[in-house]
Design a protein that fits this description.
The protein has 291 residues and is mainly alpha-helical. It folds into 2 domains: 175 residues, no CATH class; 86 residues, no CATH class. 74% of the residues lie in helices and 2% in strands. The protein contains 12 helices and 2 strands. A two-stranded antiparallel ribbon has the order 1-2. The chain is rod-shaped and about 105 Å long. It starts with a helix and ends with a helix.
Length: 291
């Protein structure tokens, strides 16, 4: 009984220390990558604890007059013994990981949110017990066995490599998305300068006049779309009347009237602009209008 209590205390201490060392490793990663490390920290902690338990086991096994092998090991570098130790370590590690994973329900694929085959085939369910037995399926067994196998046969090195591969894969996907987004922004910008502005020029609305109108409206925090909507609903008079309720708005209203009369800008011309802007992203459009 005394030996069991000592072993329990050792295992608890190792789990705490292992978890702390694992969480500390995430400091060199970005917030998203650190979240993945934190999410999989229990798996790394179990793998680290398994290695420490095996080290303690073989340390005692190789000493004479000590349980579990009172005869000890005379030559720890002998090829046959090294092979025996490696094979036994893999099976003992898998068995130990199988027990700890079962107690903690720290299954690798469940944590990643992946559905293992036959995850919907329930063997039994006991919510009162909770943990791994809450909804025990064939997929649960597969995930359980695979997690224990990864930890027992691969150790912390394999677990680290898998997680690092996941992090690199996620980073690569994110970088690819950023490149695609950048290409889309570049294409939208090119469409704006090579097609939309020349089309407005053909209608009689020069780029300089366009930026004058949008600049005056932006100074009053009024979106250009509001003027377009007024032109489309034939309510430009109401739009200008709203502008003239303030001193600054009155100045802008007079300037817009003079500009539209001088450049012969009609509501029909303004109505056509949204059709051209529909070719590009709204965010890019707002950014380009504010240039």
């Amino acid at each position: 009984m005394k030996r069991f209590i000592i072993w329990t205390l050792w295992l608890s201490l190792l789990l705490i220390l292992s978890t702390g060392s694992v969480l500390a490793q995430g400091e060199t990663y970005t917030s998203e990558q650190d979240a993945l490390w934190s999410m999989l920290a229990p798996i790394i902690a179990i793998a680290t604890m398994t290695e420490r338990v095996l080290e303690i086991w073989w340390g005692r096994y190789e000493k004479d007059t000590v349980w579990p092998n009172t005869n000890g090991v005379t030559n720890t570098k002998e090829k046959e013994y090294v092979f025996h130790k490696q094979q036994c370590s893999q099976w003992l590690g898998t068995a130990f990981a199988f027990i700890v994973v079962g107690l903690t329900n720290a299954r690798f694929f469940r944590i990643l949110g992946l559905d293992v085959l036959f995850s919907n085939v329930t063997i039994f369910s006991n919510p009162e017990i909770g943990g791994i037995l809450d909804n025990f399926t064939i997929g649960t067994i597969l995930d359980w066995v695979l997690t224990a196998g990864i930890i027992g046969w691969g150790g912390t090195e394999l677990v680290h490599n898998i997680i690092e591969a996941l992090i690199k894969g996620r980073s690569l996907w994110k970088e690819t998305q950023q490149v695609r987004t950048g290409e889309k922004h570049l294409m939208d910008t090119q469409i704006f300068y090579d097609y939309i502005l020349p089309q407005m020029e053909k209608m009689g609305l020069s780029a300089e006049t366009f930026y004058q109108i949008t600049g005056w409206l932006q100074a009053l925090n009024i979106p250009f779309d509001k003027m377009i909507s007024a032109a489309a609903t034939n309510t430009l008079d109401t739009f200008f009347a709203e502008l003239e309720t303030t001193e600054e708005g009155l100045k802008v209203s007079q300037a817009l009237h003079n500009l539209m009369e001088r450049e012969n800008i009609t509501p029909e011309m303004l109505i056509q602009i949204p059709n051209m802007f529909a070719l590009i992203n709204d965010d890019i459009r707002e950014r380009l209008i504010q240039c």
